[in-house]
Design goal:
Elements: H1 18-32, H2 38-47, E1 50-52, E2 58-63, E3 69-71, H3 72-85, E4 91-93, E5 99-105, H4 106-118, E6 131-136, H5 151-161, E7 174-179, E8 193-202, E9 205-214, E10 226-233, H6 237-249, H7 252-255, H8 263-270, H9 272-282, H10 322-332, E11 333-335, E12 341-346, E13 352-353, H11 355-368, E14 372-375, E15 381-387, H12 391-400, E16 415-416, H13 430-444, H14 449-452, E17 456-459, E18 473-482, E19 485-494, E20 508-515, H15 519-533, H16 541-546, H17 550-556
Parallel strand pairs: 6-7, 7-8, 16-17, 17-18
Antiparallel strand pairs: 1-2, 2-5, 3-14, 4-5, 4-13, 8-9, 9-10, 11-12, 12-15, 14-15, 18-19, 19-20
Helix pairs in contact: 1-4, 3-4, 3-11, 6-9, 8-9, 13-15
């Protein structure tokens, strides 16, 4: 494969088609004029990445960032859309490495899509029963533990399956990740398909390929993925992927019940050995006998060619900055495998960026980097190709933008989905709880390094968009009734794991269900009990969890689960960031329309 002869435009993975913008404008106007049946229009707009919100007459735009990749120019485009079309003047990084923009009226959506498209940004098949955004390692191509950079082949996967007739009306959504390292910075085990770069030796020559997993997922019935193959050569990984998707697409048993329509239910029902046999049988079909030529599909972007030269002298660090900058470097900065360059992970509270922050990051990338960044599953953004001598001035500029805080991927880097801020399926204000828990953790002034490694996730409902199952501490929204009134509440999970370099695992659901206003106290109590009762200085939080059973933790939190009395504690009947009595209001989600 002579793939090195090609060079793509940075950030432009999915082809932008002007006719799709024209079609969307025509269809949206016809719908607004009452000329389109709502159910059919919903299915149409979902494939264009336009999602209905719980608030009437406004939409969320979900922008695909394959492998989380984004350029300076694209950050400027996000700033423009957030400023011109989004009433809350912000964009939101998701746990799928997308960026979402909320509360946009449909008559403005088609213009916003054009602004995004001019920058090479696509919303195509970001929603609906399609192959969703293909995620990747934010440190791909620059990490020292990589077998090989999977980015070109992840790009080929995106290009092959987007707009593919096979994937336009799958039984449910289909999620894919690519990782070049077994460290797994993509949590491949929770994906429908996951790829890990692998090299084997054949007749004394190295051959590149992927280890493939299938059947993972979270939501109401979380499952670990199985290994489908330990090695699939690059010449065949798209063919095998198509076989899996063909089996999934024609599975009538999955289509009968949309609550159990993900491929994990099929794989876990028949078992991985039987499913592998199904794939092998599928590969004997006539469709699979053609060549899969990657030359026109792989995404080749030589970031190093655009990397800036190293400043001649190291900057002088101001005395008043020394301690905080050192802390930032210890948690947010990593040396690249390319000598002289570093990555800087920007901690983005709640994943929300303002127009000023989008533009400020774009300016930093142009002046100090190679104009590239990547978003993470944990709602942060990684600046790449920053010369080592530029790290301090970049940090100073990040601080001016309100983005220079240390603690990326630590206990105060809390992950949450939008919840009732915008989602029809939301039960609770997970974004409000996010802020409250971050405030509680900051108030605790945690210094212990192992405690700081505790990771916290939350979702506003059981569907795990905030990936609460894999946090060391996780919450998902619920509601309880007491004294004839409703109380926003959370189920609690402990012992999950999403830390890079250690096995992913699902958390244990406690029987304790606590009012939302007590959830920060749950975090505090678990942390304090861990610090007081761990067996050794090097015992991790999950090792502490494993020494006890569910009854212990339910007992530890028992008093927090007691139903509040309205006359004594009226604040418990109002959700975080809200100013009225809580009432459960849950609509019909569009994920499976």
């Amino acid at each position: 494969m002579a793939v090195t002869e090609r060079k793509d435009t940075a950030g432009h993975v999915i082809e932008i088609l002007d006719e799709e913008f024209e079609d969307f404008t025509t269809e949206a106007r016809a719908y607004l004029a009452g000329q389109r049946v709502e159910e059919k229009f919903i299915g149409y707009r979902l494939k264009q990445g336009v999602y209905g919100q719980r608030q009437p007459n406004v939409q969320m735009l979900r922008v695909k960032l394959p492998m989380g990749g984004v350029t300076a120019d694209q950050l400027d485009a996000f700033a423009e859309v957030a400023e011109r079309f989004a009433p809350l003047k912000k964009g939101h990084i998701t746990t799928r490495e997308n960026i979402q923009l909320h509360h946009i009226p449909l008559p403005l959506a088609w213009e916003a899509l054009r602004v995004l498209g001019r920058a090479g940004l696509s919303t195509r098949e970001a929603c609906g029963n399609t192959v969703r955004n293909v995620t990747g390692d934010p440190w791909a191509g620059v990490a020292d533990d990589e077998t090989f950079d999977a980015t070109p082949y992840a790009g080929a996967f995106v290009r092959y399956f987007v707009r593919n007739p096979l994937t336009q009306l799958l039984p449910r959504k289909f999620k894919v990740s690519f990782s070049g390292s077994d460290t797994d910075r993509t949590i491949g085990e929770i994906h429908d398909l996951a790829f890990f770069s692998t090299i084997r030796e054949v007749d004394g020559k190295e051959e590149r390929g992927f280890r493939m997993l299938t059947g993972g997922g979270l939501s109401i019935m979380p499952k670990h993925a199985f290994e489908l193959y330990d090695f699939v050569p690059l010449s065949d990984y798209l063919r095998v992927s198509e076989a899996v998707l063909r089996i999934f697409n024609r599975s009538d048993e999955l289509r009968r019940n949309r609550a159990k329509a993900r491929i994990k239910f099929l794989v876990h029902r028949v078992g991985i050995e039987r499913f592998r046999e199904m794939v092998e049988a599928e590969l004997t079909g006539a469709w699979a006998q053609r060549d899969y030529d990657l030359d026109d599909l792989v995404f080749i972007d030589n970031e190093e060619a655009d990397a800036p030269e190293m400043p001649a002298e190291a900057p002088v660090i101001a005395e008043e900055d020394a301690d905080l900058f050192e802390r930032f470097c210890s948690t947010n900065v990593a040396r690249q495998v390319q000598a002289g360059y570093s990555t800087m992970e920007v901690k983005v509270n709640q994943g929300d960026l303002s127009p000023e922050q989008f533009r400020g990051l774009a300016d930093i990338l142009r002046r100090y980097g190679a104009s590239r960044a990547r978003t993470t599953h944990w709602q942060n953004i990684v600046l790449r190709w920053i010369p080592d001598n530029s790290v301090y001035p970049v940090w100073r500029e990040l601080r001016a933008l309100g983005l220079g805080n240390p603690g990326a991927y630590e206990v105060n880097d809390v992950v949450a989905c939008p919840g009732t801020d915008s989602c029809k399926l939301g039960i609770t204000s997970s974004m409000g709880l996010n802020k409250a828990i971050q405030a509680k953790v900051e108030e605790m002034h945690i210094q212990d390094p192992l405690t700081r490694q505790i990771l916290i996730n939350m979702s506003g409902c059981p569907n795990s968009c905030g990936m609460h199952h894999v946090g060391n501490i996780g919450f998902h929204g619920a509601a309880i009734r007491t004294g004839g009134r409703q109380v926003p509440a959370y189920h609690t999970f402990i012992g999950g794991n999403r830390r890079y370099g250690s096995p992913m695992r699902l958390g244990m659901l406690l029987r304790t269900r606590v009012p939302a206003k007590r959830a920060p106290t749950v975090v505090e109590r678990l942390i304090l009990d861990y610090e007081e009762n761990r067996e050794s200085d090097d015992e991790s939080f999950n090792e502490y969890v494993d020494r006890y059973d569910r009854l212990y933790f339910d007992g530890l939190l028992k008093d927090l689960a007691l139903p509040p009395e309205y006359d004594d504690e009226p604040e418990h009947f109002v959700d975080w960031d809200r100013d009225r009595l809580y009432v459960l209001e849950r609509g019909e989600g569009e994920c499976a329309v």
